[in-house]
Task: inverse folding
């Protein structure tokens, strides 16, 4: 036994399944039949040889001899004598020179036969040598390998066909491996003629593997290396030291020129070696160290070493035995946890995720206690057990199994629970999924393109801030425009015009009534005394002055109204300019802070000159004018008052009252006929003024007059359609500008996805084309927000919840959200078909409804996964799950351990075998993967390095037990076959991997 390892260490190493170890399958021992440079194979030579092998970090040796197994027998015996409990694997390697030649110089090809040590009894090995004839004959009889003398070994050859016949007579196909030389004394590059190429191809077909160098690997993994065009199976290439001396044994380190180490990922057994025949690309590595071992060393904090579960001190077992001294070591690549239904598979996944502080605890299926799912987390169960996760770095974390995860602490394990994808695909537009996709895309962005952003959201804000500001300004203009459009549309309705016409008729009737109310015409009375004449003239002149004052009051009122409007506009202009200056100064300060690193003189670059003196002067002047017009001078009117100097409205009104009082007094002094005549004139004047006030002036009609109402009718009939058309065109222009602003944001998304696309392309095939598009995607609240603006209990195209929703969804199905014309037609058709002004009760607020529809806030740029050109919404639940799994496995750049619980649910076997297994193979190259599964297409198709078979014996007080091992481990094989079942392609592959004859 290796003194550096305890029995527990050895047990854990075995339980971890297939591990990367150095193997040297071509090593000659002292006394080898040809080119023996070890010296005399005496005791000291053998002891030195065995000690070098034992001290080496090579775990398996192919002990080689020419046409003989003597070196293997002797090495095995000496090893047992010196290290009785040795753990190294010794494999007999029979090196043969073949009769077949492929090179121009006629040099023979060497091939090797590796025999399973468990089958390599002396009798079987002797029988093989006794059965196998060479080309050398003595006295007309061919010498067998066991009959060769020392001088024969250099010349002897055997036919590959005789080799295969003799092997099959002595061993089963699973008990040997034919390994042919690919470089020197081999096939690669030696065949030049048609004949030699044909022989080379036949030798290739007859071989299971090849001895060569790293440069030979890709050729023998190829599917088109045969000259006749027939497909070739991928086969492994091993390098070997080909040591013939103690000096050659320096090659075991892998540091000697041209002799790199061969690493094999397998159980330390011949069955483990045979796994390389089924997984030649992933189970053999020639070079310094396999990438996973480098990562294991440098990223030890990202690998789980083992999981321990123990009961708390004092637990009596009253609620079941459950987890007693569980200590599961994990393989650094792919661990598959298998077991029958209810065997505790998901328990392992949940517990690892809990101890890894997952963010998916809400999706646990074992560590849960809810009213409708009373599982292990309920009181008296999980609280009686402790879980401990030990990392490769030596760090460990422990917590009770009833504890909650701490979201203030980082997530050290990525968990994809059994029902996680179902929750995402049930409502495919949820923000969580979009955020996950964006985070994965961001992880693929080159550091130089991240602009110091820490997340996709930060980078998006930086790269699209201008577009978003632009969109905000456009929306503000659109909202203002809709005030005008709603007003114009409401005025364009027939009812509006009809109401105005009705108002005109009412006013005309008032005019008719006033006309009819005029008193009968009355003649002026005969001339009387001079005093009466003078009084009458005085009344007439004062009446004329009264009319002049009324006209001046009206003019003053117009001037006051205009002055107040100009004052308001002037103040708004001044305040807006000052606000602009404030914003400018703020933005300038922001620029200084944001772009200080560029070294520009922002003050010199940005300079805003403002001169508000003219505006301030006008404001002062207008305030004076308004004050002048509104000032009440409290004038004391008398005979000497100069009425031509009165200008303020209060003073004009007081003057009118003064004149009216004077006229009344003067009329009282007139004779009765003159009083009647003056009353007649007053009535006519007042009625005519009323009629004039109702009819209005054509040039500048007052609001509410017949002239103004008729002008409105003229405007409705002639100008309104043009203004409304112009407003609608302006709205479309603004809407298009909004779309273009959004398209700039979509361009940002498109620019980031190139590396993601290349990774997805690598996983795509003819039957499985997966892609990611930067598209405009509807908000999941679109329908809800749309119907919030409507009353669905009144007539219209969207009446009724069920019918209205169906109609709306049907309309959406025809929209191309990446095409403005398609979107705008969708909006306009809704507005047209609703006939909003006719069915005004269906829309709660027309302006708000327009703001919602034309602002385009219900779709945004985002990433959309596609399978065969179909979006997620068009896929079946199984296809959605598969697509999302591929996305996570292939694109997630996080290198923390990935735990997946039964991803194969709802997926068909062909998809699993062809796609998902391939994705898991790729994922385990970059991170540790723990997979809970009951499907062989994943456990075996993905070539799991470790199988953890779990059981939960409910009849035996809920005792949990487990066994760990590699696929090639016979006992693990038995568990796999009993538990797992799958499609025929998977079964065929499993049959080979299980080594079932």
Result:
């Amino acid at each position: 036994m290796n003194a550096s390892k305890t029995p527990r260490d050895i047990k854990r190493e075995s339980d971890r399944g297939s591990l990367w170890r150095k193997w040297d399958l071509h090593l000659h021992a002292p006394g080898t039949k040809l080119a023996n440079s070890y010296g005399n194979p005496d005791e000291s030579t053998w002891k030195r040889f065995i000690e070098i092998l034992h001290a080496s970090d090579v775990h398996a040796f192919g002990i080689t001899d020419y046409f003989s197994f003597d070196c293997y027998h002797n090495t095995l015996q000496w090893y047992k004598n010196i290290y009785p409990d040795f753990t190294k694997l010794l494999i007999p390697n029979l090196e043969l020179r073949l009769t077949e030649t492929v090179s121009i110089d006629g040099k023979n090809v060497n091939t090797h036969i590796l025999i399973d040590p468990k089958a390599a009894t002396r009798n079987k090995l002797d029988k093989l040598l006794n059965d196998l004839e060479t080309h050398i004959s003595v006295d007309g009889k061919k010498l067998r390998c066991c009959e060769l003398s020392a001088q024969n070994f250099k010349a002897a050859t055997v036919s590959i066909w005789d080799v295969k016949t003799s092997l099959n007579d002595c061993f089963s196909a699973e008990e040997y491996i034919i390994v042919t030389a690919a470089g020197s004394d081999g096939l690669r590059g030696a065949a030049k003629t048609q004949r030699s190429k044909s022989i080379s191809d036949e030798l290739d077909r007859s071989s299971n593997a090849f001895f060569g160098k790293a440069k030979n690997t890709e050729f023998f993994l190829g599917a088109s290396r045969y000259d006749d065009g027939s497909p070739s199976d991928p086969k492994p290439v091993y390098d070997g030291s080909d040591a013939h001396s103690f000096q050659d044994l320096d090659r075991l380190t892998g540091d000697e020129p041209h002799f790199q180490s061969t690493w094999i990922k397998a159980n330390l057994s011949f069955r483990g070696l045979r796994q390389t025949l089924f997984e030649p690309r992933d189970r053999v590595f020639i070079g310094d160290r396999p990438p996973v071992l480098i990562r294991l060393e440098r990223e030890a904090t990202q690998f789980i070493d083992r999981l321990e579960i123990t009961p708390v001190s004092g637990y009596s077992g009253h609620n079941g035995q459950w987890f007693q001294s569980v200590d599961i070591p994990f393989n650094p690549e792919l661990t598959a946890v298998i077991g029958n239904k209810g065997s505790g598979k998901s328990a392992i996944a949940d517990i690892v995720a809990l101890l890894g502080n997952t963010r998916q605890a809400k999706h646990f299926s074992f560590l849960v206690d809810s009213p409708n799912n009373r599982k292990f987390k309920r009181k008296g169960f999980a609280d009686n057990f402790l879980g401990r996760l030990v990392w490769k770095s030596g760090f460990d974390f422990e917590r009770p199994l009833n504890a909650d995860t701490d979201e203030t602490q980082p997530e050290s394990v990525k968990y994809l629970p059994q029902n996680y994808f179902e929750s995402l695909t049930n409502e495919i537009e949820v923000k969580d999924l979009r955020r996950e996709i964006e985070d994965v895309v961001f992880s693929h962005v080159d550091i130089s393109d991240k602009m110091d952003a820490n997340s996709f959201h930060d980078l998006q804000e930086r790269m699209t801030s201008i577009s978003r500001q632009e969109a905000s300004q456009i929306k503000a203009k659109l909202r203002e425009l809709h005030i005008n459009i709603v007003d114009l549309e409401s005025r364009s309705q027939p009812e509006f015009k009809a109401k105005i016409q009705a108002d005109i008729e009412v006013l005309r009737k008032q005019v008719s009534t006033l006309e009819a109310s005029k008193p009968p015409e009355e003649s002026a009375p005969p001339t009387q005394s001079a005093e009466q004449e003078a009084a009458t003239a005085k009344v007439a002149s004062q009446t004329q002055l009264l009319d002049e004052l009324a006209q001046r009051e009206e003019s003053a009122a117009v001037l006051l109204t205009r002055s107040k409007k100009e004052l308001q506009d002037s103040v708004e202009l001044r305040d807006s300019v000052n606000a602009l200056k404030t914003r400018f100064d703020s933005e300038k300060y922001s620029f200084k802070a944001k772009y200080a690193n560029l070294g520009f003189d922002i003050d010199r670059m940005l300079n805003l000159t403002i001169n508000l003196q003219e505006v301030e002067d006008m404001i002062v002047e207008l305030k004076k004018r308004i004050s002048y017009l509104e000032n009440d001078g409290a004038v004391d009117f008398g005979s000497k008052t100069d009425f031509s100097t009165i200008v303020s409205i209060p003073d004009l009104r007081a003057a009118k009252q003064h004149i009216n009082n004077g006229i009344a007094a003067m009329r009282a002094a007139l004779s009765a006929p003159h009083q009647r005549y003056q009353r007649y004139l007053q009535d006519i004047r007042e009625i005519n003024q009323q009629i004039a006030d109702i009819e209005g002036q054509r040039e500048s009609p007052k609001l509410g007059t017949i002239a103004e109402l008729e002008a409105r009718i003229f405007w409705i009939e002639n100008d309104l359609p043009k203004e409304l058309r112009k407003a609608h065109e302006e709205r479309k222009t603004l809407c298009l500008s909004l779309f273009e602003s959004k398209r700039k944001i979509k361009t940002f998304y498109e620019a980031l996805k190139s590396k993601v696309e290349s990774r997805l392309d690598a996983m795509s095939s003819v039957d499985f084309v997966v892609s990611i598009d930067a598209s405009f995607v509807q908000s999941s609240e679109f329908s809800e927000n749309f119907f919030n603006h409507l009353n669905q209990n009144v007539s219209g195209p969207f009446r009724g919840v069920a019918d209205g929703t169906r109609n709306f969804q049907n309309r959406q199905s025809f929209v191309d959200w990446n095409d403005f014309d398609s979107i705008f037609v969708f909006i306009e058709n809704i507005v047209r078909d609703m006939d909003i002004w006719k069915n005004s009760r269906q829309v709660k607020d027309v302006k708000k409804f327009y703001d919602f529809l034309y602002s385009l806030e219900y779709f945004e740029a985002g990433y959309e996964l596609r399978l065969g050109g179909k979006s997620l919404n068009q896929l079946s639940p199984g296809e959605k799950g598969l697509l999302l799994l591929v996305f996570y496995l292939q694109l997630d750049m996080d290198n923390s351990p990935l735990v997946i619980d039964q991803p194969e649910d709802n997926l068909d076997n062909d998809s699993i075998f062809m796609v998902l297994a391939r994705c898991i193979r790729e994922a385990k190259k970059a991170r540790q993967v723990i997979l809970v599964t009951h499907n062989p297409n994943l456990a075996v198709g993905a070539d799991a390095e470790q199988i953890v078979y779990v059981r939960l014996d409910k009849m035996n007080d809920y005792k949990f037990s487990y066994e760990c091992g590699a696929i090639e481990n016979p006992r693990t094989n038995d568990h796999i076959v009993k538990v797992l079942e799958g499609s025929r392609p998977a079964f065929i592959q499993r049959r080979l991997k299980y080594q079932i004859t």
About this structure: The first strand starts at residue 19 and ends at 28. The radius of gyration is 49 Å. The mean pLDDT is 88. Residues 447-483+728-873 form one domain.
